[in-house]
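Hi R.,

As promised on Friday, here is the backbone we talked about, encoded as structure tokens. Could you run it through your design pipeline when you get a chance and send me back a sequence?
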């Protein structure tokens, strides 16, 4: 199979879909890999490393799109890339279609075989291709939140950990999944007061066993969320429904009740965000202030640390990418429900139920199409 990887064009996105080690693995399996010149530089991988690994360097991204059987990326294609879609192309990347009707329509019109990292689910219901970026985004959310609590960024002007004789910051985490747990780990490590809310009592028990007296666990309901937010200095939104639109737990009516200069980091913004007041921002212009609350809603947070993010992501994606390349997508899906769970569009049909529900489109089970 011909495998391609182009330079990401999203604002301040420096990650890359394949590392030189990934190229070596595909080539060893008998595949041809085409890399756009300069694609890996933002993550610290030189063109010469890709050549040494066996890749062919191509100057023009459009040529790669037209040449390959499978395109491996990091972020969703942008509108300027939609004309490059074509019938039968396998697209292997993050898509987040529930929050992007335009892209969904473009993939359907182009009859692209779109495999989304974020919906690929293992037999134990884990999300192995979402997990590494969730870990990074969770840890980064506290780092960024602490920064934007500084006065010069519009924050309250407080130190997350405080110092002896001063109050520590109150951190509230909405959602106790991978993002929430990693945010909790960093917030506790920095010495903040941490409250974490989740609807799953078993998960709250696990978090309580993990962090003990260092955190307060609460069942996530409107009353508990509202009470927690009134005293919060930093709020992390980390709610997820795989492939679906994120529920709006952080309601606009809470904002006037919150501290002036408090910070809300909406990690769920890729899936539409868990805040009613959220809208996507970029690394160039990451925050906006509404009702005195600083909102950080960057859609590609892990792109800020591309070296770590690229290595972590491609460590996870390579296994499934090789399975698709070695067997072909159809055979891989017939043999593996795990691979099948990642397919969001196929032959002009929507094959992910949550995405279909988000847009009110017809859902077509993949097994009936292959």
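Update: got your reply. Pasting your designed sequence below so it's all in one thread:
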């Amino acid at each position: 199979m011909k495998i391609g990887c182009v330079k990401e064009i999203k604002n301040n996105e420096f990650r890359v879909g394949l590392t030189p080690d990934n190229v070596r693995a595909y080539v060893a399996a008998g595949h041809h890999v085409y890399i756009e010149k300069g694609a890996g530089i933002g993550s610290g991988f030189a063109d010469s490393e890709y050549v040494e690994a066996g890749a062919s360097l191509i100057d023009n991204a459009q040529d790669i799109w037209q040449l390959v059987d499978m395109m491996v990326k990091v972020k969703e294609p942008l509108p300027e890339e939609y004309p490059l879609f074509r019938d039968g192309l396998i697209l292997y990347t993050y898509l987040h279609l529930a929050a992007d009707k335009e892209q969904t329509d473009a993939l359907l019109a182009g009859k692209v075989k779109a495999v989304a990292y974020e919906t690929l689910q293992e037999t134990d219901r884990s999300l192995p291709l979402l997990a590494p970026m969730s870990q990074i985004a969770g840890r980064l959310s506290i780092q960024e939140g602490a920064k934007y609590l500084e006065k010069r960024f519009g924050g309250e002007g407080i130190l997350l950990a405080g110092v002896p004789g001063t109050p520590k910051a109150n951190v509230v985490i909405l959602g106790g999944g991978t993002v929430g747990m990693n945010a909790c780990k960093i917030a506790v490590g920095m010495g903040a007061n941490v409250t974490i809310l989740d609807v799953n009592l078993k998960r709250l028990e696990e978090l309580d066993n993990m962090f003990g007296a260092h955190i307060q666990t609460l069942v996530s309901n409107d009353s508990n969320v509202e009470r927690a937010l009134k005293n919060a200095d930093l709020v992390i939104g980390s709610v997820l429904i795989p492939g679906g639109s994120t529920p709006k737990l952080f309601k606009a009516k809470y904002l006037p009740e919150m501290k002036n200069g408090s910070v809300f980091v909406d990690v769920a913004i890729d899936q539409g965000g868990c805040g009613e007041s959220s809208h996507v921002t970029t690394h160039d212009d990451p925050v906006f202030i509404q009702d005195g609350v600083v909102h950080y809603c960057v859609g590609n947070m892990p792109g800020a640390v591309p070296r770590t993010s690229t290595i972590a992501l491609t460590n996870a994606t390579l296994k499934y990418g090789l399975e698709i390349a070695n067997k072909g997508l159809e055979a891989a899906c017939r043999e593996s429900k795990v691979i099948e769970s990642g397919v969001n569009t196929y032959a002009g049909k929507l094959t992910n139920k949550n995405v279909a529900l988000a847009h009110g489109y017809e859902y077509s089970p993949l097994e009936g199409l292959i």
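One thing I noticed while checking it: The chain has a mean pLDDT of 96.

Thanks again,
M.
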